[in-house]
Design a protein that fits this description.
The structure is a single chain. With about 475 residues, the protein is an alpha+beta fold. The chain has helices at about 10-20, 40-45, 45-50, 75-85, 90-100, 110-120, 125-145, 155-170, 180-200, 205, 225-240, 245-250, 265-295, 295-310, 325-335, 365-370, 390-395, 415-430; strands spanning about 60-65, 65-70, 90, 150-155, 340-345, 350, 355, 360-365, 430-435, 445, 450-455, 455-460. It is about 50% helix and about 10% strand. The termini are far apart. The longest helix has about 30 residues, at about 265-295.
Length: about 475
């Protein structure tokens, strides 16, 4: 008989697993001495992250000789991002980026993040976003009107320019010296790729290797962007008017003590919005247009719905909820082409899946892999907007869809982005049929985002004969 008060064998095994920490987590296959799993992450990152989803909620991988915990269970990811969020900070990826873009919403943690988010949140209320729809629609319509029949469109470049145009009009509605926005746009076009490469899970010694095509981001490279944004802020302070835009909101926002942001804090939030709000949106727009061109029946259904709801006019905010099939199409694209890797770092002991992780443990998770896990999405590589009808999505686990994150760190621009995606696509579909220009599959380019490499589409006008 068990000794009175002694732990049961099951409890002892559980306690033993917890005390072993990372050593209790199964190691992913194909680990290489010294390099660990770094080669897989470097050369086949999407396939590698998906390969870890074998049913175990935790996997251990090695970046060089450094052990890292990977979460493959949506419930554990939510535990990290919500219930146990105070046990974590942002992690090494964001430590790398913070010296360059500052301590804005993407990189800050703890009380700093909570204060900044409350102060920035007003810029993304539903009513304010609705007020920007007319700007989104006008700029998208101007772009769509500039295309020519049969033109081969460099899609990502076109969407980059449009996303920048829309975002900066929402940020800076007041008078801005005409040379400043081109400086910002040029900087983003030239530097953001190198900045995204800075957000790498690779150990520093691997990042330092002379790998062809890798452009490391240098601290001094951010100076022209900082100077341009400081000039805009200075001009707003000199003007003193309320321009009903994001910069005015940042300048006037107060925390619970009545304190306002410093000019440095304002600049860091502006940098964050520009870096996070241009390439992410343009990449999503590009993938949506690629999907519409790849699946003509989906494109025809979107066009029929847009015709029925809009009747040829530009959309207003109230129209977007009626574009149900378009919304499902966007949702499916975001499932298939979401952020591929995010992370946190343990700052105080925490138990996940029965394993207690010590401070300093890096924890990775992949929204992309969750969104392609056949446990949650049958035929995950099959593009199917109808998987998002109420009857089909009813059994989906609550947290198995997270293109914008979840919890207190959910992307503050989610509402703005979804409205922009629907508005832009509706306008393009009103005017054009889109076609692939090559039978060669578009290659996903993996940085902080999964973006389409060298995507070119052609456009033909929507006429009765062309739509047949």
């Amino acid at each position: 008989m068990p000794t009175p008060g002694a732990a049961s064998p099951r409890t002892r095994r559980r306690d033993e697993v917890a005390s072993r920490g990372l050593e209790a987590i199964p190691v992913a296959s194909h680990r290489v001495p010294l390099l660990g799993h770094s080669r897989q992450l470097q050369y086949q990152p999407l396939e590698f992250m998906r390969s870890l989803h074998t049913g175990e909620p935790l996997k251990r991988i090695y970046l060089g000789t450094h052990a890292v915990c990977v979460l493959t269970d949506p419930e554990l990811i939510v535990q990290v991002l919500r219930a146990d969020r105070r046990h974590f900070d942002k992690g090494a990826l964001f430590d790398e980026l913070r010296p360059y873009i500052g301590n804005g919403l993407v990189t800050s943690a703890g009380d700093v993040h909570r204060r900044q988010r409350r102060m920035v949140q007003g810029g993304f209320h539903r009513e304010r976003i609705a007020g920007v729809v007319s700007v989104m629609a006008q700029r998208a319509d101007a772009l769509a009107a500039s295309w020519q029949p049969g033109q081969h469109i460099a899609v990502e470049r076109s969407m980059d320019a449009l996303a920048f145009d829309i975002l900066t009009r929402a940020m800076f509605a007041g008078p801005v010296h005409p040379d400043i926005l081109p400086i910002i746009q040029t900087w983003l076009g030239r530097r953001i790729g190198a900045m995204q490469q800075t957000l790498s899970p690779m150990p520093r010694w691997i990042q330092s290797l002379p790998i062809p095509g890798r452009a490391r981001f240098q601290p001094k490279a951010i100076a022209p962007l900082h100077q341009a944004l400081d000039r805009i802020t200075a001009s707003y302070r000199a003007d003193g008017a309320d321009h009903n835009d994001l910069l005015t909101l940042l300048m006037n926002a107060e925390d619970e003590t009545g304190a306002k942001m410093t000019d440095q804090q304002i600049r860091e939030e502006l940098v964050t919005l520009l870096v996070a709000g241009t390439k992410t949106t343009s990449s999503s727009l590009s993938w949506i247009l690629h999907s519409l061109a790849s699946y003509p029946e989906v494109q025809r259904r979107v066009q029929a719905e847009v015709d029925d709801v809009l009747g040829g006019r530009l959309p207003v905010a109230a129209d977007l909820s009626a574009l149900d099939y378009l919304q499902r199409t966007i949702r499916e694209v975001l499932r298939m082409r979401s952020v591929w890797l995010l992370m946190r770092r343990v700052i105080s002991p925490v138990t996940l899946g029965g394993v207690t992780l010590p401070p300093g443990t890096e924890v990775l998770y992949s929204p992309y892999a969750i969104h392609h896990d056949p446990r949650f999405y049958p035929r995950p590589d099959h593009f199917n907007p109808d998987r998002w009808t109420k009857e089909h999505s009813a059994n989906l686990p609550k947290h198995a869809y997270m293109p914008f994150g979840t919890g207190s760190r959910i992307c503050i621009g989610e509402g703005f982005a979804l409205v922009e995606l629907a508005t832009v696509i509706a306008i393009i579909m009103t005017r054009w049929n889109l076609h692939l220009t090559s039978d060669t599959p578009v290659r996903p380019v993996v940085g902080t985002l999964v973006r389409p490499g060298r995507l070119t589409l052609s456009a033909s006008p929507r006429t009765a004969s062309a739509d047949m």
